[in-house]
Design brief:
- The complex is a heterodimer.
- By secondary structure, chain A is an alpha+beta fold.
- Chain A has a single domain (6-76), classed as TusA-like domain (Translation Initiation Factor IF3, 2-Layer Sandwich), CATH 3.30.110.
- Chain A has helices at 19-27, 46-57; strands at 6-12, 36-41, 60-67, 70-76.
- A four-stranded mixed β-sheet of chain A has the order 1-2-4-3, with helices on one face.
- The longest helix of chain A has 12 residues, at 46-57.
- By secondary structure, chain B is α/β, with parallel strands linked by helices.
- Helices cover 43% and strands 16% of the residues of chain B.
- Chain B has helices at residues 5-17, 35-50, 79-87, 105-116, 122-131, 140-146, 164-173, and strands at 23-30, 54-59, 135-139, 160-162, 174-179.
- In chain B, helix 2 packs parallel to helix 5.
- The longest helix of chain B has 16 residues, at 35-50.
- The chains are: A alpha+beta, B alpha/beta.
- At the A-B interface, helix 1 and helix 2 of A face helix 2 of B.
Chain lengths: 79, 180
């Protein structure tokens, strides 16, 4: 699954619904199509919200990593 | 019988575009003046905008006082207008919980808890809504009824006063309609 390069890391630790999704929607346009953003979040709701957001917006979640107390989500801009 | 495919497609296109709910838009009526419902409304509005939807909010009845700017003062109100101005919350930060308000203790506790858990408060939600171009309308009739004037409402980009027809026109075009 590691065939992508992260071009940007965003720290959303501590933010609660709806802020992680609101913020990624404002940031996705700052990278080029095909590039991947790494998001740090501590909000477990993001595990289902990021895929739902990506599906609606036409982007992709290429990987999700869960570490103790930290969730890392990799978002690929597709359009 | 031969079918003119191009013409048929053009006619269908016109039909589909004029269908109710064809637009990627959310129309929300905010009737409640409760803090909890107001928070829910703002979370849904900003979330929908983040999902690429156009968002239009209509504040009516007990929802309208949430749009009052606490620092603004207007004169020329009659007795009833003054009474409403005094008895209704002056702005979003004066709203109360619908349950467990407990003479202010419950609401204060909830606000403290939100801060502790880093849940965005109404001030931040309004900032985000403005950044995401969430449209806000205030109901003219409610304002007339309660004696509120446009000059005493918050400085929110594009804030307008309207009637039921504006709301219905938006609602008809919207894929989602909510009443809170």
């Amino acid at each position: 699954m590691a065939d992508y390069a992260v071009v940007k890391t965003l720290d959303y630790k501590g933010l609660a619904c709806p802020m992680p999704v609101v913020k990624i929607s404002q940031q996705i346009g700052t990278v080029a199509i095909g590039e991947v953003i790494e998001v740090y979040t501590t909000d477990p709701g993001s595990l289902s919200d990021f895929p739902a957001w990506a599906k609606t917006m036409g982007h992709a979640i290429v990987e999700t990593k869960q570490e103790p107390g930290l969730i890392k989500i990799y978002v690929k801009r597709q359009k | 019988m031969s079918v003119d495919v191009d013409k048929a497609i053009a006619e269908l296109k016109l039909k589909v575009e004029g269908m109710p709910g064809a637009e990627n838009k959310l129309t929300m009526i905010v009737m409640s003046g409760d803090l909890d419902k107001h928070l829910a409304a703002m979370i849904i509005a900003t979330g929908a905008a983040a999902m690429g939807m156009k968002v239009v909010m209509f504040f009516t009845y007990w929802g309208t006082p949430a749009l009052r700017a606490p620092q603004k003062k207007v004169g020329g109100k009659n007795f009833m207008g003054k009474m409403f101005a005094m008895m209704l919350p002056k702005g979003r930060n004066k709203l109360k919980l619908s349950q467990m308000h407990m003479a202010g203790m419950g609401t204060a506790m909830m606000k403290g808890l939100m801060k502790k858990k880093n849940v965005a408060g109404l001030d931040e939600m309004y900032d985000v809504a403005a950044q995401l171009a969430v449209k806000i309308y205030a109901c003219q009739m409610s304002m007339d009824l309660m004696g509120f004037k446009k000059e005493e409402l918050i400085d929110y980009p594009g804030l307008e006063v309207c009637g039921v027809a504006t709301m219905l026109a938006h609602a008809k075009e919207s894929a989602i309609q909510f009443f809170i």
